[in-house]
Every structure is written in C-alpha cells, then in structure tokens.
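Why this split exists: single-chain examples teach little about how molecules sit against one another. For that reason, every record in the complexes split bundles all components of an assembly together and asks for one structure covering all of them. Below is a record exactly as it appears in the raw files.
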Amino acid sequence: MANKKTTIKDIANALSISTAAVSKALHDDSRISTKTKEAVKKVAKELNYQPNHLASALRRGKSNLVGVVVPRTNSNFFSSVIQNIEEVLNKKGYNIIITQSNESYQKECRNIDTLLFTQVDGIIASMANETTNLDCFEKIKSKGIPLILFDRGENDLNVDYIGINDYDSSHMIIEHLTQQGCKRIAHIGGYRHTRIFNNRIRGYIDAIKKHKLPTDDALLIESSLTTEDGRLKMQQLLDLEDRPDAVYVASDYAALGALQVLQENNIDIPNDIALVGFGDEPFTGMVTPTLSSINQHSAEIGKLAAETFLKHVDTTDLKQTLHKQILQAELIIRDSSKIK
Amino acid sequence: MANKKTTIKDIANALSISTAAVSKALHDDSRISTKTKEAVKKVAKELNYQPNHLASALRRGKSNLVGVVVPRTNSNFFSSVIQNIEEVLNKKGYNIIITQSNESYQKECRNIDTLLFTQVDGIIASMANETTNLDCFEKIKSKGIPLILFDRGENDLNVDYIGINDYDSSHMIIEHLTQQGCKRIAHIGGYRHTRIFNNRIRGYIDAIKKHKLPTDDALLIESSLTTEDGRLKMQQLLDLEDRPDAVYVASDYAALGALQVLQENNIDIPNDIALVGFGDEPFTGMVTPTLSSINQHSAEIGKLAAETFLKHVDTTDLKQTLHKQILQAELIIRDSSKIK
DNA sequence: CAGTGTTGCTTAATCGTTTAACTAAAGTGA
DNA sequence: TCACTTTAGTTAAACGATTAAGCAACACTG
C-alpha cells in the first residue's frame, strides 16, 4: 500500500499534464475539457488522493476551520449548540475546533491564542464566568476575524450576539410563581458582572415590584451557580428567619443542589417551597420532583450562530457591529412548581 | 493598527538579516548568537508577530493537531476524558479537534475523513454504539497516523487501547449485591457486539454462576442504554412473573430511566429492588435515592490516551500493535443498593 | 485572409516557514 | 604560519496547492 501520500503532482505525472491542470480539473474549472476532468478524477480515485488541506489553506489564506469557545461541553445546552453549529458549518465545508475554558479566564485566553495560531477563519464563543477583561476578544476583532458571541456575551464588544431574552424569562417565571400563589420569591442568581445573569436579576427585581411582592435583600443571592454552590445558597435561604415560599435559580445545576438540600430537610416541594431552574437540562425531567425550567432553544442558537458566521464570510465588506438576535425563551412547567 | 499579519520576512527586513536566521532565532537554534536571538525576539514582540501555523505545518509535514472522536460530549465521562487529553497535549504544543459521532457510524466516518483532511497528527477515538464495520479506522492506520482507542475499542484493530476492566467490574457489582442479600439479579446491558458491553455481560453471567444464583434468560436484556430505553427495559423486568430483587444497568443514563420507572411504580429502592448503574456520572449522586455506580477513572484514561499518543510521536519506529492499558474500576456504593 | 475569440492547456510565482548545504570570518593548536 | 574547527550566519530549495498570465491551436467573421 502507498505509504507516502498522493499529491496533485502524482496525478499530473500519471497523466503527463501540469499540476495546474490537475488542480483546475479537481475544482471543475471551466477552462479544462470534460475529458481531462474525467481522467483526472479517475486517477485521483485510483491513487486514493486526498487534498492537503494545509497547502490549500496556506495558499488561499483561509483554513476553513472555525473555532468554538465554550465554558464547558458537558452541559446539554452547550453540547447542543455545538452540535448544531457543526451541522450547519459542515455543510459549507467548514470544520470546527471545540475548546473549553472551564469557566477560567486564563484558559479562555489561551484557547483563543491557540485558535488564532491555528488560523481559524472565525470564532464563535460563549464567555467564561470569570471573564470581565475583554482584551482577548478585542484581539480577535483586531485581526479582522469574525467573532460571534452567544449566550454569555457583552455589548461593549460590538459584535454579533445570539441569545434569549433573559429579562423576559425572569418575568415569565415570577408571573408563573405568583399564579401558583407564591408570595415570597427568592432568586439565586449568577454574578452580576455577567450580562445575562444581570439581566435575569433585573428581570426578577422588576417583576417582583410589578407584582407588588416584598423585596428583601436577603432573598437575592449571587452565586457561581455550580451544584455545590446551589446547595450552599439554598441552605442560606433556609437559615432565614422568614423563609421564601419559592426559589428561582438561574441555572439548573445550582437548582439541583438546592433541590437536594430541600429534600434533605424534608421540605415539601413545591407546597412548602416551589423551585424553578434555568436551562432545561435533560436531568430536570429526571429528578424527583421534576424541575420546572426555561428552555433556551440551544439548537436554534447554534444554527443562528453558524449562519451568522457564514454571512460574514459571504459578505466581504460586512463590518463587525453590535447585532443582537434575541430568541424568546419558553417556560417548561414541571412538578417542582405545580402547587396543589 | 497593522491590518496585515506580520511574517518572519518583516522581522528579517527590520533587522536586515535573512528569514532563515529569524526562523532559527525563534527556535533557539544553537547556531544563532544570543545577541541576534534577543534582537529577533524583541522585534517579534514589537510587531506582534504570530507564527503562521499552516505554513510551518506544511513545511514540517505535521500539523500539531490531534483529532478526538467521541460518541458525544455531553456526558461527564467523555468530557472529562477530553479535558485531560487536552491538558496533557497542550503542554506539548498540540491542540485538539473534538468531533462527536452521536453514536452514528455514518457521522463517525465523516468525522474521521474530516480529521484526515485536516492533516491531524493522530486520532484518539471511542467508537459509536452502531459501529461494527472498522474500515474507517483501518483507513487511519493505513495512512500511518497513530490511532489510540479508549473505552469503546476493538481488539481486531491492533492498536493501543485504554479502558477499565469491564469484566471485573461486573464481578464487583454482583459481589456487592449478593452481600446485600440479593438473590435474583437482572442485567440491562449494552449491545453484545460492542466489546465493553459484551465483557460486562460475560462478567455478569460468570459472577452469577460463581455465586450459584439462578440464571434466567429473562433477566439479561440488551439495550441501547439511553434513558428512554432504560425505562422500557425496566418496565419489561417489572412485567415478569418472577421479578428480580436487584438490577445492574450498564450505563447511568439507562439506570436513571430504570429508577424513574421504579419510583412511578412505588417500588422501594433498594429494599424491594436494588439498583446499580455504571459510569459514576455526577447526577448519580444527585438523584433520590442516590445511585450506586462504577467510577471509570475518566481523568486517568484521558491522560493515558494523550501520553500514549505522545509516545508514538516521540518513538518514530514505534509500530501500531495491540497494547492494552486496563485500569481497575471502582465501585461507588450509594443508597440505591444499601439494603437495610 | 487578417483580425478577433475561444478553448485548453502550461509556466511560474506565490502563500510563510523550515532546513540542508554552503560560506565567510574568527579562533585554535602545533 | 598552515590546517583545521567553530561560530554565525546566508542561500535556495523545499512543502502542496492555487492562480495570474501567457500561449498555441483552432474557429469564426466580415
């Protein structure tokens, strides 16, 4: 078996034509006769020719690689977004390189450097929890590489963004909980410096006021939103003199931690305390009781992100500017908030 | 700001030396004076030089990219393996391209083609559930590219493999369940054509015999091991005349489905029926009751896979051969199998 | 039949980096 | 001083594909 890889040179030699003719034949250039094209393709198949992507990328100045930066892949939201990005881009001849930041700003920067070094044609990213400094992302922009943000974005970067309406989502949740008769609703939110979590917090506060419910500083807690921190913050709420009768947690993972603590304390969910999460992770339908949550339309977000990137490639003079595509999220009501 | 990218040519011009000298200086070649090296590095920094990875990869015939093929990324096992592969390889200057097959053989093949096209230096893979045809993988081997398999492997490929001892794991589980007093233990296993699931099944059968427990064909069921199928197969077991008093499920996801069905039928876990899963996914510690499971040492597997790849690169004449690295799995006993 | 197009290729430069082979200058030892 | 080694570079040819420019050969037109 041929150990060395076949190049267009081999094909050219076999047919006694130039490598240029071979290259054009393989790209169906109109200036090559049908006869030659067929001959070239036949030989290419026989020799098991596979184009050297590096060479063509170098010559054409584009790699057909798109970098994806996510906080982690082992959440259903991100893995579903990624899957859909991949599906759309593969069809157009692009491949994706997935990197995870593990919510670390340092890792995120290193990942971005890696992607730039690999000469990706674009980057689709969702920011780490830690990220406040935007230098890394500015660097991408300054290189003239399309940058598309989703879910965890930042207006100040002035780039395309795809996400859901977090502010409205909070309203939907509070609306639902008040309908269930809840009067003292707490919120375990994310860090305020992250725009989406801040929007959820603002939505929570405004909705509480709108429904003329008590606003109590003790009921609004910032959290890293891990399962472990969800446990801690829920315990904190239970330790209050005046306990809430409902808790809205800005992430399903943290909500899961909260759920465990409630059960360990033999608290009746939802009758003593109702619980609503965020993200509609598959496990929300699997725990007992099943957990109400917000569906973020991950598939749609992935598709839109990929299509937005493609728009940038197709439109050469398209300049980066703040262009938000906001999807309307959907509240999935399950047992954890259905008060009898 | 410089819109065009800086190349070694720019550095060479700035210092009136050759590009060769610049290249060598940047690689700390011994034949370049310290003075020149320093000057080159200084100018490189000033001009914000970033090496063109494509060019160097083309010239050196290696891309420093490693492809990873997994069934999916949104399981803790795979995402943890990936994270550890990445950690080890990044340190050595390699980047990884992650692709998911979604358990589809077709997608797996396309992913592999993509990776080969991208000129990866090696591929680390875990096979899709569907995969029985090994042509795609033979293709990798025939190109002379190192292939390392983990978890879902296949002896016939004669390549490196890293995994746990599935056969022994089954023994551990049956041992534990009999100690708890279980006498009629069922197994919801994976498809027999997948080696690891077959090993778990063989382990189950042999352990049952060893403990002189009844072997009943109705107690051994093959499954796709999704949560949904776990529900179906558990229901099937409940419909039996003579129900089991323990069920060992070959995947945590399917075990979760089983757990739901048991709860819906108001069956006391573990006292009526004990339950053990496989994989030690984080949710096993979060559901009620917490689910006993097998820790597969994902971090260790990722590290070993990466290190095995590096061994192939370092040892030029290392030929591909069946070399198994088997880790001893650990049984994590939780409430679902602690009979009072 | 000269002029103009069209067809179907070839030539050669190019992308940015690496590296084998060469060279000039300086240093070393007897 | 001569022969030899060491040092610090330079030159030029790759790597494999793409593409602008060139050029035969033939067809067509008025």
